[in-house]
Automatic annotation (TrEMBL):
Signal peptide limits: 1-33
Source organism phylogeny: Bacteria, Bacillati, Actinomycetota, Actinomycetes, Kitasatosporales
Major subcellular site: membrane
InterPro entries with a match to the protein in the record: BMP_lipoprotein, Peripla_BP_I, PnrA-like
Similarity field: Belongs to the BMP lipoprotein family.
Record's protein name: BMP family ABC transporter substrate-binding protein
UniProt keywords, alphabetically: Cell membrane, Lipoprotein, Membrane, Signal
Domain ABC transporter substrate-binding protein PnrA-like, first and last residues per copy: 46-347
Natural source organism: Streptomyces composti
Coiled coil: none
Length: 348
């Protein structure tokens, strides 16, 4: 049984229509609804939206698993260009008002919105991916030790490079992405101090398109490749697709991020250039929060995924990577040392 009864908007054919009615001050949910236990997980996407073949798509995979297993209605809502924190909060409030539970903001940019919505709906469980700043009894901060997976990506890059030069491209110059950079650079240097790391950021703010502009990623990767980088790791959301495209065009290695990008259909023609991906299991975190609410024991507080829990890792889909004994041995040794505390990975 669902822990909390839910409200269904009568006559709403889709979640988007219901959202529109609420946002526009249309039909009142209280006047035209009956109590039903048929609404569950709702997610609001980060910049780049669904189809980024990375971060947002991983959240959607978690939603789909919950929908299939629990047999309830779900909703997933796209961001809009130039939206404010108030816009984000209204989106979450609208979802909670319709009876969705839990409601998850995908990405650190939802911090203010989640906090505000959670205060208005204390009986609804909220989640936020990639933020650990909200302290509320009904909020789960779903965070990951990205620096650990990035360290392993650095080990792989140092072992794979022929030119002794590798690159890191961050989407936006923010603390979250600094974790990826710090772990990658440390992994490279610990493996081979002679390898040079070229690091750069696409933009200073998300509004400038750092997470949503494949053309920016492609141009940045091209510049690093001209400087002899033959392995390029991007933590840049949708912009990372451009990095992978540039790597394929120049016959060098790319390292994907968040999801196993070797398996992404939209990137299929470039997959032979994707050495590995530094993954974080956003899908599992999203599903687990939905499951905890379904079981009546909702997760709250900081919920962290790391190498020890298996929620950050490197993918092994590319046979050239999986079958390279030298790289695999180096990664296995590094992972063991991180898990047992022998290696302390920097996060900035």
């Amino acid at each position: 049984m669902r822990r909390i009864s839910r409200i269904t908007v009568a006559g709403a054919a889709t979640a988007s229509l219901a959202l529109a009615l609420t946002a526009c001050g249309g039909t009142s949910t209280s006047a035209n609804a009956e109590s039903k236990e048929d609404k569950g997980l709702a997610i609001a996407y980060d910049v780049g939206g669904k189809g980024d073949q990375s971060f947002n798509d991983a959240a959607y995979a978690g939603l789909e698993k919950a929908k299939k297993e629990f047999g309830y209605k779900t909703a997933d809502v796209e961001p809009t260009e130039g939206e404010t924190d108030a816009d984000k909060e209204q989106r979450l409030v609208s979802l909670a008002k319709q009876g969705y539970n839990p409601v998850i903001g995908v990405g650190y940019a939802y911090a203010s919105a989640v906090k505000g919505a959670a205060e208005k709906f204390p009986d609804t469980t909220f989640g936020i991916v990639d933020d650990a700043t909200i302290e509320a009894d009904n909020v789960a901060d779903l965070v990951f030790s990205e620096e650990q997976a990035s360290y392993l990506a650095g080990v792989a890059a140092a072992k794979a490079t022929k030119t002794k030069t590798v690159g890191f491209i961050g989407g936006v110059d923010i603390p979250l992405i600094h974790k990826f950079q710090a772990g990658f650079e440390q992994g490279v240097k610990d493996t081979d101090p002679k390898v040079k790391v070229i690091s750069q950021y696409l933009t200073q703010t998300a509004e400038e398109g750092g997470f949503s502009s494949p053309d920016k990623g492609k141009a940045a990767a091209g510049g690093q490749i001209e400087k002899k980088a033959d392995v390029v790791y991007a933590a840049a959301g949708l912009s990372g697709q451009g990095v992978i495209e540039a790597a394929a065009a120049n016959k060098v290695w790319a390292i994907g991020v968040d999801s196993d990008q070797y398996k992404q259909e939209a990137l299929a023609k470039y997959k032979d250039s994707i050495l590995t991906s530094a993954m974080k299991d956003v899908a599992k975190a999203v599903y687990n929060l939905a499951k905890s609410v379904e079981e009546g024991k909702p997760e709250t507080g900081i919920v962290r995924g790391d190498l020890k829990t298996g929620e950050v890792s490197l993918s092994n889909s590319n046979p050239k990577f999986a079958e390279n004994a030298e790289i695999q041995e180096a990664i296995a040794n590094a992972k063991e040392k991180i898990v047992n505390g022998e290696i302390k990975v920097k996060s900035s």
